[in-house]
Specification:
This protein has a single domain, classed as OmpA-like domain (60s Ribosomal Protein L30, Chain: A), CATH 3.30.1330. Helix content is 37%, strand content 23%. It contains five helices and seven strands, in the order ααββαββαβαββ. It has helices at 2-22, 32-35, 43-60, 97-106, 129-144, and strands at residues 37-38, 41-42, 65-70, 74-80, 114-123, 152-157, 163-172. The strands form two sheets. It has a five-stranded mixed sheet, covered by helices on one side. Strands 1-2 form a two-stranded antiparallel ribbon. β5, α5 and β6 (152-157) form a beta-alpha-beta unit.
């Protein structure tokens, strides 16, 4: 078995060497930041924004689980609902309200050509009106902070009972102008 593994390892290295020589990379590692700019805006700035939100939440809520789903595009934060909401109520704990307000304010003004969306999901094990009310309430907090209603999504998550999931998206702004045909047939 050991000799077979060594042969496979040698083959893998030979294939990797062949691919590297055939498909050489252009530029240096330092040039990568320039390659990350796109028609969607500056991806590095978007990644920095998501990183800032993740650090802010992680600092305030040690139980927060911060996961980068797509670098520079999607960030998910999972926290126990008891660490955000008052027990048995659809109201944010007054100690956590400044954190939610700071997160909301970071999303108000995206750069040109970019749209920030936030998805608020409260986890449930079965139908739970409180989870629905909590999602709706937190969505209203984000909207009252100045985030457009069309950029805030509220709902429930079946697979995460007792958790609040916040997903932050950086998307291209798609504003196609309406055109009307004014000529009669």
């Amino acid at each position: 078995m050991n000799s077979i593994a060594r042969v496979d390892e040698a083959r893998s290295k030979a294939v990797a060497g062949s691919l590297n020589s055939t498909f050489t990379s252009r530029g240096t590692l330092a040039d990568k930041s320039k390659l990350l700019t796109s028609s969607l805006g500056n991806v590095i700035a978007d990644a920095a924004l998501l990183s800032k939100i993740g650090k802010l939440v992680r600092t305030e809520l040690s139980l927060a689980k911060v996961t980068v789903i797509r670098p520079g595009r999607v960030l998910e934060i999972s926290v126990p609902s008891a660490s955000i909401f008052l027990s048995g109520r659809a109201a944010i704990d007054p100690l956590r309200r400044p954190l939610i307000d700071r997160v909301a304010h970071t999303l108000i003004t995206p750069p040109s050509g970019v749209r920030y969306d936030v998805e608020i999901l409260n986890g449930i094990a079965r139908h739970d009106d409180l989870a629905v009310a909590r999602s709706a309430y937190m969505a209203s907090v984000f909207e009252n902070a100045g985030i457009p209603q069309r950029n805030v999504i509220a709902g429930i998550e079946q697979d995460a009972p007792g958790e609040v999931l916040l997903r932050f998206y950086v998307n291209p702004r798609q504003e196609t102008p309406l055109t009307f045909d004014t000529q009669a047939n």
